[in-house]
Please model this.
Amino acid sequence: MTSLYTMKTADLRNAFLAFYESKGHRIVPSSSLVPNNDPTLLFTNAGMNQFKDPLLGKSDPGYTRATSAQRCVRAGGKHNDLENVGYTARHHTFFEMMGNFSFGDYFKEETITWAWEFATDTVGLDASKILITVHPSDGESRKIWQDKVGIPAERVIDLEENFWTMGDTGPCGPCTELF
Model:
């Protein structure tokens, strides 16, 4: 593995995809920036866009685990990052969103423990410097971080913004992040 301090974007992308492939995920190529079969979107604005139908139970992709590095554009609508570009270091209008997806196969415990394993073991981030955020209502994730992963309670922070949605209807719920 390349040192964390010399890792290039391609190294990180390849490491992420290989990690989740080793966990039984199918690597799915990035879909088009202009969605082919989704009239609700002008641009692909999230990594999950190409998986909307399987996540909603409308189609069976033929596998239960997927990983991707999806090219995204956010330049309008609910996820309009234009207003935040230049004000924060984490808002961009064109970026790549790496993700792992389960279609009824696994849930929070695997997602959290694998994210920790990737960040600390694969990438080599210093575990003592990582903070965790959870939605205040998500006691299940908090318990996994503290009891299963071993993160001290003072490093698991409530964040009201940790609630993910794509719109008024559809997949949504509390999320958790590593910082």
Observations:
- The radius of gyration is 17 Å.
- The beta strands are 26-27, 65-73, 94-102, 132-134, 156-158, 163-165, 172-174, 176-178.
- Residues 108-122 form the longest helix (15 residues).
- Residues 133 and 157 are 5 Å apart (CA to CA).
